[in-house]
């Protein structure tokens, strides 16, 4: 049964946004949302014939706000705004980003602070429920005055103009898509065009989607690190609870707890403390020993980013806005700085997580540091190259992620004849974070694949496995999609197969099934 998300004046949950944007959940406007919109529309209607200027109702936009628009041209003003602002260019933005943007704008309408008629909000709900997604290019938003071009393409589709992808994924004219879905184009009234483009909706949607992915990937990173510690014959003693209580960062404590849980019951780890295999190294390399500190810092960054997203979800962003006491006031709440900063911050955290993961992978491949494993984990080193080039791939991704970690939000290019003279570039920060999240997932997949191969070479494979129960479960899962060690094979499909296990959550589910608690 398809999930339905109720749109009310109260904040959406992050899970609701992900459900609609990524998984195609339906939406419905609650009666209280319709009432809130009716109330604020009466305020706008009262201004339509007012001779005094009201921004967005009877004036031009941006640097053209000094122009008073005649009454008979005010609906044309709204149509012209959308047509002129639907000016994006470049590679088409992912469907889930556009759906998240539309949902966030719909919710802002539902707060009753924008002055749009309920039928406009119903039109947005209709597009979402019909699976109609406006075609939006990656360039066009400066992250200030709203995600202007992306939001304008969505408003254009509601008007029955422009290009969209239908539910089947084909690109068609918006008029045809609306007609096929039984939807009527909307003729925008005073202020409505402006109300549809003045928000941080796109960058917020990208933040929420990335946060959901990073929660999964940060837990996956702990799992990968534990497998590397076991596979490299490291010590889990450094993850003891009392040691981490000496530096009680919540993220660090959570990461260390995950590592302890995954390593619990490992026969390979136990062998490093006793008998002829007793551990002789005083301490492991940083990439193993300091995993909780690095992973924990990334978690703290994500906690902060999610707190910013929560504030943004509780916001009604428009300019001008209809206040609770019926005033129509200009403001600067559309500025994307708060969201842009944390999008950039998360790209830094993702890059560092990938960097430490790649270093763990590399340790497996060097016989001087792998403690008894074949060079590059090759079956017959020299004849075979093993995972040599898998590390190259990880290194290349990490290098790209370091470039993506350069902040977008420190840049600003003035626009609109210097009226909009400081912008956030938050949309650009969101797009590069999405690429960084994808990179982290691939780097972790390479570490997991490499650690599983190393462990098979240590103990002979699943049949004679000496791993902890959680790691044994993950190794078993990986072996359902990738063969065990042997002569060189086409490696790219194996990396992709493990990436898909991490992406779907199956990797974590396998580990969690073997534990008394879930990795978080």
Question: What is the structure about, briefly put?
Answer:
Belongs to the PAL/histidase family. This protein has 520 residues and is mainly alpha-helical.
Stretches where pLDDT is under 50 for at least 5 consecutive residues are none
Radius of gyration: 27 Å
Overall average pLDDT: 94
Which geometry do the CA atoms define?
A: elongated
Helicity range of the residues? 40-55%
CATH topology of the largest domain: Fumarase C, Chain A, domain 2
Number of strands: 9
Distance between the amino and carboxyl termini:
28 Å
Fourth-level CATH superfamily of the largest domain: Fumarase/aspartase (Central domain)
**Helix- and strand-based class?**
mainly alpha
Please give the count of helices.
Answer: 20
CATH architecture assignment name of the largest domain: Up-down Bundle
Biggest beta sheet summary: 3 strands, antiparallel
Whole-number count of domains: 2
């Amino acid at each position: 049964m398809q999930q339905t998300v109720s749109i009310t004046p109260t904040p959406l949950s992050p899970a609701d946004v992900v459900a609609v944007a990524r998984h195609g959940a339906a939406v419905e406007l609650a009666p209280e949302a319709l009432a809130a919109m009716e109330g604020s529309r009466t305020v706008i209607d009262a201004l339509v014939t007012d001779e005094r200027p009201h921004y967005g109702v009877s004036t031009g936009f941006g640097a053209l706000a000094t122009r008073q628009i005649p009454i008979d041209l005010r609906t044309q003003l709204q149509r012209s705004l959308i047509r002129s602002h639907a000016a994006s260019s470049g590679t088409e933005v992912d469907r889930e980003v556009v759906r998240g943007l539309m949902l966030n704008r719909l919710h802002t309408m539902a707060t009753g602070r924008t002055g749009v008629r309920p039928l406009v909000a119903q039109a947005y709900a209709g597009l979402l429920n019909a699976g109609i997604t406006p075609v939006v290019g990656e360039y066009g938003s400066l992250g200030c005055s709203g995600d202007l071009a992306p939001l304008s393409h969505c408003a254009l589709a509601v008007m029955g103009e422009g290009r969209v992808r239908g539910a089947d994924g084909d690109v068609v004219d918006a008029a045809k898509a609306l007609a096929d879905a039984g939807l009527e184009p909307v003729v925008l009234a005073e202020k409505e065009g402006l109300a549809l483009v003045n928000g941080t909706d796109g960058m917020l949607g990208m933040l929420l989607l990335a946060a959901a992915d990073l929660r999964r990937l940060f837990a996956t990173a702990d799992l990968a690190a534990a497998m590397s510690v076991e596979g490299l014959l490291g010590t889990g003693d450094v993850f003891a609870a009392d040691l981490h209580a000496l530096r009680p960062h919540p993220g660090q404590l959570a990461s260390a707890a995950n590592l302890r849980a995954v390593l619990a019951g490992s026969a390979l780890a136990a062998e490093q403390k006793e008998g002829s295999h007793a551990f002789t190294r005083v301490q492991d390399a940083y990439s193993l020993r300091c995993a909780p500190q690095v992973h924990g810092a990334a978690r703290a960054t994500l906690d902060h980013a999610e707190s910013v997203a929560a504030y943004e979800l509780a916001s009604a962003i428009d300019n001008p806005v209809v206040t609770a006491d019926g005033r129509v006031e200009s403001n600067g709440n559309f500025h994307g700085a708060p969201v842009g900063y944390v999008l950039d911050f998360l790209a830094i955290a993702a890059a560092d997580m990938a960097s430490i993961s790649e270093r763990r992978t590399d340790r497996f491949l060097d016989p001087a540091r792998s403690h008894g494993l074949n060079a590059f984990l090759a079956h017959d080193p020299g004849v075979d190259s093993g995972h040599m080039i898998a590390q190259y791939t990880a290194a290349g991704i990490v290098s790209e992620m370091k470039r993506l970690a350069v902040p977008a939000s420190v840049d600003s290019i003035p626009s609109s004849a210097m009226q909009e003279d400081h912008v956030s570039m938050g949309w650009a920060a969101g797009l590069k974070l999405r690429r960084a999240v994808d990179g982290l997932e691939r780097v972790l997949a390479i570490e997991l694949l490499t650690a599983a191969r190393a462990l098979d070479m240590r103990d002979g494979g699943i049949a004679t496995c000496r791993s902890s129960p959680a790691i044994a479960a993950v190794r078993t899962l990986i072996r359902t999609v990738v063969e065990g060690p042997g002569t060189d094979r086409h490696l790219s499909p194996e990396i992709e197969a493990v990436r898909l296990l991490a992406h779907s959550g199956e990797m974590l589910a396998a580990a969690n099934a073997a534990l008394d608690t879930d990795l978080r």
